[in-house]
Structure formats: C-alpha cells, structure tokens
Automatic annotation (TrEMBL):
This is Acyl-CoA dehydrogenase family protein. The lineage of its organism: Bacteria, Pseudomonadati, Pseudomonadota, Alphaproteobacteria, Acetobacterales. Its cofactor is FAD. Residues 135-229 form the Acyl-CoA oxidase/dehydrogenase middle domain. Gene3D superfamilies: Acyl-CoA dehydrogenase/oxidase, N-terminal domain, Butyryl-CoA Dehydrogenase, subunit A, domain 2, Butyryl-CoA Dehydrogenase, subunit A, domain 3. It holds the Pfam family Acyl-CoA_dh_M. Keywords: FAD, Flavoprotein, Oxidoreductase. Belongs to the acyl-CoA dehydrogenase family. It comes from Caldovatus aquaticus. Residues 241-396 form the Acyl-CoA dehydrogenase/oxidase C-terminal domain. InterPro entries: Acyl-CoA_Oxase/DH_mid-dom, Acyl-CoA_Oxase/DH_mid-dom_sf, AcylCo_DH-like_C, AcylCo_DH/oxidase_C, AcylCoA_DH/ox_N, AcylCoA_DH/ox_N_sf, AcylCoA_DH/oxidase_NM_dom_sf, Mycobact_Acyl-CoA_DH. It comes from the Bacteria.
Length: 402
C-alpha cells in the first residue's frame, strides 16, 4: 500500500511541488479506501462507527487531517492551500462522510482561534486522533436560524457553570464525547450580548440525548436536554460576552469552508449519474436530449462557480483576510443547486430499463439517499432566507425596510 505520511508529505512539497503531493494523496486514497465503502459501489458495505473512526485516524496519520493546524497541537503545519489540495482529492472519491466533521472543521478552528493554550493541547490532538468526536449545540426548538433568540442558560454557582436548556438537530449527538455549546449568560432581551461558548462533556450528569428519526430512515440528529449540567471553568471558551462573535465565526466557517471538498464531491456525483445513464439503453439517449443536456450543463457550471468561490476564499484567508458574508453566498449557492441536481438525478434514473442494470441500481440507491438528505441542506447552518438576508445586509449593503 502507498503511504505518504505526515513527514513524507512535508518533504515532498518543497522538492516536488503540489502536483506530486496531489498524486501521492490520490494514490493513497485509491489504495486504502475499501471498495465496498464507495458510494458508487455495486455491492456496498456500510462501515460501522469504530471502522470509520479507525479509517479517519489512518487518514490523519497519513497527513490528510489537520493539514494546516500547528504542529504544536498535533497538526501538520502546512498551509490552507495544501489543505485545499487534500480536500479536492477527498472530494474526488465517493467516500463516507467524516463522523467527526464538527470537531475537525468547526470546533477545531474555533479552539485554535480563541481557546487557551491548555485547551488547545487538551482538545486538538484528541480530535485529530479520533479519540473524541464532537457535536454542535447551537439550534433550539425556538431558536434555529435565529441564534440570538436562544434560551439555554448558563449560570455560575461560584464553582462551576450550570447549564439548563434544550438543543435540537444536534448532528451526531448520540456518538459525541464533546459538544461545542452556545448558551446565554445574560437575559433573553440582551440578544447578541451575554452569550458564551462552552465545551460540554456529553457524559456529564444532567445530559440526556434522544435520537431523531429522519426522512431517509436514519437517526443522525439528536435532541439534547440539559438539566443543571456542570461545566468546569476550564471548559469555557473565551469570555462570557465573546459567544456571539465566536458563533458567527463558527457559522462563517460552516457556510464557507466546512466540507471544503463539496464542489469536487458534487462533480463526482455528476460523473456517476452520467456513467449510469450511459450504461442504460433508455437513459443513454436522454443525455443528448436538449432539455436534459441543458440542465446537466447548468449543474456543471454551478460546480465550477462553487470551485471558484472556495478557491477564492482560501486565497483570501491565506493572505490574512476574513470569510465574512461570502459564507452565506457559498452556502446558498451549493445548497439550492444540489437540491435541483438531486431532483434531476431521480427524474432521469426513474426512466431506466427494467430490471435495472447493476450500475443503474447503484446510482438509484445513491441518489435516493442524496435526494432525501438534500431536503435539509437549505435549512441547516441557516435557512436560505437567512442567507439572503445576510447577503443583502453584509454584501450588497441594501437599506433595511422602514
């Protein structure tokens, strides 16, 4: 098996350049990803949680996680440009989604930005080594996209913080050891003031997790009840009044660079759909039908636009810039485009010859799942309406209605 390793990746970049490193990453993924785990597999095998944790730990040891994080905390000390190359190659492969994307892509960057030295050394290596899985405790039954309206309370009893409240749509909450929790230290009328971030232990006394069944039959989401849950002072992130700014940064990351590989994964989905259609006598002629050809070409354009968005953000961040409102522009673009594409894929595949060929059955299985999961993509991380409001306010600078 090919292995690039963290040290090998670092050595290769100055000597051979990004192209050789990209090739090494691609070779490692193709050699090590179990074929049955691919989303386009004819005979798929669903990996279990422990298998996925072991796989992601191997990816980290190979240099494919924590790419741009400091070496002092277990990262590989490279740049966002190298992180983008890794993300592109991960996107090319129809591999399982990370079971710790919250930890790697949301909690980790916030810990690096506002965490204490002790917090960084305690939490970051555990995220990368897959010893601790994280979830995100932001949304509430009465405060989904409007985070300023959240009601979960954090009060200090002189020794520890006490958390009381309820979180919902907590992705992976049932398997997580830690939660990036946003709670209110002030009054509800304070809105943006008096909010704080905490690192919550999911096994702490007073935490109850109830899984939520989804439209696709899975139960990835959870509702989390918090009854006088103790949180040590050492697990408070930043100051009590820094929570809103930190939450905004989390959401900017989630909307712009979380799952940075998304454009390249959408490209993989498009290739899979076209290949399945070409393998079917009923579907192959439809690829040349002007109505379908135009819609497929439009999605191809939308993928390229998304690539440019992501690459532009990476370049700006590498130059010391900020994501800002562009996170909403990116999130709105990919979520709306992906829903349209998922509907198109099912429309096409529904016209396949009967009985479907194995390649077509594999595509039908994959795109049914994509279609159902895509229903939530215009809701989580802020609804499309919220994104439009942010774009109008922060990018277009439109005046507010009187």
């Amino acid at each position: 098996m090919t292995a690039i390793g963290a040290a090998a990746a670092e050595d290769a970049l100055p000597a051979a350049g990004p192209a050789a490193w990209r090739r090494a990453i691609r070779d490692w993924l193709e050699a090590n990803l179990p074929p049955a785990w691919r989303a386009d597999a004819i005979a798929p095998a669903e990996p279990g949680l422990e298998e996925l944790k072991a796989w992601e730990a191997r990816m980290y040891r190979a240099g494919l996680a924590g790419v741009a994080w400091p070496k002092a905390y277990g990262g590989h000390g490279l740049t966002l440009r190298e992180h983008l190359i890794v993300s592109q190659e991960i996107g090319r492969m129809p591999m399982p989604e990370s079971v710790n994307s919250i930890g790697k892509e949301l909690a980790g960057p916030i810990l690096l930005a506002i965490g204490t030295e002790e917090q960084k050394k305690r939490f970051i290596p555990a995220i990368l080594e897959m010893r601790e899985i994280w979830c995100q405790g932001f949304s509430e039954p009465e405060a989904g996209s409007d985070l300023a309206g959240l009601r979960t309370r954090a009060t200090h009893d002189g020794k520890v913080w006490r958390i009381n409240g309820r979180k919902i749509w907590t992705s992976g909450g049932f398997r997580a050891q830690r939660c990036l929790l946003l709670a209110r230290t002030g009054t509800l009328e304070d809105r943006h003031r008096g909010l704080a971030l905490f690192v919550l232990r999911m096994d702490a006394p007073g935490v109850t997790v109830q899984r939520i069944r989804q439209i696709d039959g899975e139960a990835e989401f959870a509702e989390v009840f918090l009854d006088d849950v103790p949180v040590e002072e050492a697990d408070a992130l930043g100051s009590p009044d820094e929570g809103w700014q930190a939450a905004v940064r989390v959401l900017e990351i989630e909307r712009a660079t979380n799952r940075m590989y998304r454009a390249w994964r959408l490209e993989n989905e498009l290739r899979h759909l076209v290949a399945a259609c070409r393998a079917d006598p009923n579907l192959a002629p439809l690829l040349a039908d002007p109505a379908y050809a135009q819609r497929l070409a439009q999605f191809r354009i939308e993928i390229e636009v998304l690539k440019r968005y992501v690459e532009g953000v990476v370049e700006d961040l590498a130059a010391g810039g900020a994501i800002g409102g562009r996170g909403s522009l990116i999130k709105l673009h990919w979520s709306e485009a992906h829903q349209r594409f998922a509907a198109l894929a099912l429309e096409l595949l529904g016209q396949a010859a009967l009985p479907p060929a194995p390649e077509v059955r594999a595509a039908q299985r994959r795109f049914r799942r994509i279609y159902l999961r895509a229903r939530a993509e215009t809701i989580y991380a802020g609804t499309s309406q919220i994104q439009l409001g942010i774009i109008a306010d922060r990018i277009l600078r439109l005046p507010r209605a009187a």
